[in-house]
Amino acid sequence: MAGVERHGLLLMNLGTPDAPTVAAVRRYLREFLSDPRVIDIPPVARWLLLNFIILVFRPPKSAKAYRKIWEEGGSPLLLRSLEFTQRLSIELQGEFEVELGMRYGRPSLEAALARLKAKKIRSLTLMPLYPQYAASSTSSSLEKAYRLIGQAWDVLPIRVVPPFFDEPGFLDALAAAAAPVEPKDGAPQAAQAGASPPSTAGTAMPSQSSGDPTLMPKTR
């Protein structure tokens, strides 16, 4: 509609391989684990660890694990993220143009930002889809988004949605998703297919605690 300001909302998730194959997983891991915020060691040591150990032994094992959870339409994480994006876009219709971008892999942050730019947005809100802050996820995603946005001559006004691990709505949704697998009579129940997307990686303890504002004492 003419005269209506368009605002962009970029949802950012971690990423996933394109396929549950050794080649696709190796390509994904190379991009993911080359990030200094993920493996926080000197660059030469990180390169040696990645190229002579991790990328040699890890891809076959990870590809096998991915095949166990892969769905007909693709990666569970990607499918759930796209479904969430679509539903949120409907909810926010008329207020925000919503796009999904992955920190690693596809759809990339670059592509998502390009789609938002084509929609002539006047401001941008970044929403990392990680409930709690970590340098290896939230900070890495924001840093890359800032870097890409900063390449433009005219930089849009930007807002960031903070960590939402303690938001009542999120906790209620998490409880509802966990209900089908809560232990009953001492035995865990079978998970419902697609109830919640799997995690793609754990977070090392130094990354969890280093600079994490959610772990700092709250001041009144």
Record keyword descriptors for this entry.
Rossmann fold; 44% helix; 220 residues
Explained architecture:
The protein is α/β, with parallel strands linked by helices. It has a domain at about 5-15 and about 75-180 and about 195-215: 3-Layer(aba) Sandwich (Rossmann fold). Helix content is about 45%, strand content about 15%. The chain is built from seven helices and four strands, in the order βαααβαβαβαα. The chain has helices at about 20-35, 45-70, 75-90, 110-120, 135-150, 170-180, 205-210; strands at about 5-15, 95-105, 125-130, 160. It has a four-stranded parallel sheet. Strand 3 (about 125-130), helix 5 (about 135-150) and strand 4 form a beta-alpha-beta unit. Helix 1 crosses helix 2 (about 45-70). Mean pLDDT is about 85; it is low at about 190-205.
